[in-house]
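I am writing to request your help with a piece of structural work I have in hand. I am sending you one protein, given as its amino acid sequence and as whole-number tokens for its backbone shapes. Kindly check, if you would, that the fold set down in the tokens agrees with what the sequence suggests. You will find the record immediately after this paragraph:
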Amino acid sequence: PGTILGTRGVAMMPVSMNWGGQIIELYGTDFEGRGSIGKIGYSVYDEEAQVYRELLKGCYKAYIYRLDKGGTPACATLGSMHFTAAYPGILGNEITIVVTKSSNSNGSFLVSTYFKGVVRDTQKIKTPEELANNDFVKFQYQPESGGEEKDGEIESQGFLTTPGLPLQGGENGKVTEESYMAFLEEARKRKWQTMAVMTEEENIKESVVSAIKRMRDGGKKVQAVLYDYPQADYEGIISVDQGYRTKWETISPMTFVATIAGMTAGAAMNESNTYKVIHGAIDIINAKTNEELEEGIQKGMLLISESESGNIVIEKDINTFVNSTLEKGYSFSKNRVIRCLDEINNTIKSTWENHYLGKVDNNDHGRNIFKGDVIRYLKDLEELGAIQNFDSAEDIKIYQGTEIDCVVVDLYIAPVDAMEKLYMTVVIG
């Protein structure tokens, strides 16, 4: 069947919201039109959309998890019609319903949904039952006999017209520690590469580290970015404590967590973010001296600095792993290496589950077919420059495990990293 190179570029982020469902699939292309407004309540130009923009600068898709729970959707009633905001939150109070008689069709009505003063949906109907829910409002028709006239005129079927009926009572929910625990459980079920968790709460950071370790130990190779948490000392956790300014806006150190998460999720397995330029940045928040940069890197912090050319760049693409062991050396602190190893794991695992699990006999013939697919995949990676010196005769062993249905894969992989250090000897003749 062949093995397909893994696709990266998916991030995940929990955030308190003024609008939106529990899990939102947000794409970078949603900001090109109006798609983001229905999903998160904001356009690309809104200040409140900054954290989403930063996340999606580096990746193409993000799972947004709404942290606040127990919110109230805005609502309104017009005669026998009940209008309820599609989601809880204060942005539901920005919805207005306009119902008018159609000027060019006898007995028809135009029902328009306005959000932030802009019409988002218009439906032409003859009876209230024809109304279909849209991205902003749920409609419910409950006819009653002998209804009172208010805010308009009663039509033959009990439907009222109105020049503008605002929805009211929308409230946000509350964020608790349990909200984060529910998010981490949801993250376990989704396919993504890097999550951004923007919090200063130490207990929540500890929970994130524990969850990432459980996922990675269980075969789900992912990473998380946290604010100022180098003590994680783990290849699955990236720590930042800086932000930056552009001519138009300020990206706080907390929002920069999302920036790095998106950038890491979107980086290819043969790509390093070391010295990657932060486009548009003209100043650094919490800038470091050379001594502080060196000290921070030794602690496991991913830091930004100003290059000699004046660009704001990532000093070194590293995670928080600093205490090397015989089993895990210095290379495990490099995010490019981790991306390479993670994608090899994830892609081979996916190939196994989609094409071999329960489908192919566990004998020499079946295992050799599987081995051939893995070898072709690894040779593709070698051509991409992700790994090097792969010897298909010596570096891969696939054999039956201790149980009749078990298969064991032993791999020796040498990832390629980017050049970062230059040691130069000058001989003067």
Q: What stands out?
A: The first strand starts at residue 10 and ends at 15. The CA atoms of residues 290 and 305 lie 9 Å apart. The helical segments are 35-40, 50-56, 177-189, 202-217, 253-266, 290-299, 335-356, 364-384.
